[in-house]
Design a protein that fits this description.
This protein is of the alpha+beta class and 181 residues long. The protein has two domains: 99 residues, Peroxidase, domain 1 (Orthogonal Bundle), CATH 1.10.520; 74 residues, no CATH class. 62% of the residues lie in helices and 14% in strands. Strands 2-1-3-4 form a four-stranded mixed β-sheet. The longest helix has 18 residues. The termini are far apart. Its main location: membrane. Keywords: ATP synthesis, Cell membrane, CF(1), Hydrogen ion transport, Ion transport, Membrane, Transport. Pfam families: OSCP.
Length: 181
């Protein structure tokens, strides 16, 4: 069974539980916190994936690390640990966040720019691209990339909208090279 399928199943179960208990907002916030912890702590992932550490110790660490999360999320983490699916927790969090955003008509966008974007620039991009994609809103993560020279590049799901100067220069170069042949 594929890892992403396993993570998806846990995410779906947690999502449905959140809908049933009308606690999707709270769960989303908690899952984002869990995702951040796993992204920032390689030691946690190493500890949880170690076969020499007992399940009880792993569960105790999870309970201590995530003592403020709901019992639904904590129980999901426990079940994943008991079934030796600890390494799937980060994938489960990504799948849960994606499902929640999809249910709300929200898309996540990585916006690459030469400098940090102002709030007005983010709102302008959000308005234009949310409308273009038929979404209610965009959750924008701004990534500063000085190699772009200018302009912005958006990555939304598997779509890329590239309006950077470096990309335009590449196109001009290709046209010049092909014209000289």
């Amino acid at each position: 069974m594929s890892d992403s399928v396993v993570a998806n199943r846990y995410a779906v179960a947690l999502f449905e539980l959140g809908q049933e208990k009308l606690a999707l907002d709270q769960l989303l916030t908690e899952v984002q916190a869990v995702q951040t912890v796993f992204n920032e702590s390689q030691d946690l992932t190493t500890f949880l994936s170690s076969p020499s550490i007992s399940i009880e110790k792993k569960k105790a660490l999870l309970k201590d690390a995530f003592k403020d999360v709901s019992k639904e999320l904590l129980n999901t983490l426990f079940i994943m640990t008991e079934r030796h699916r600890e390494t799937e927790i980060p994938a489960m969090t990504r799948a849960f966040i994606s499902m929640t955003n999809e249910s709300r008509g929200v898309a996540e966008a990585d916006v690459y720019s030469v400098r940090a974007l102002s709030d007005e620039e983010k709102q302008s991009l959000e308005k234009v691209f949310a409308e273009k994609l038929g979404k209610n809103s965009l959750y924008i993560t701004n990534i500063v990339d000085p190699s772009l020279i200018g302009g912005v590049k958006l990555k939304i799901g598997n779509r890329i909208y590239d309006g950077t100067i470096s990309r335009k220069l590449e196109r001009i170069e290709r046209e010049l090279v092909s014209a000289n042949k």
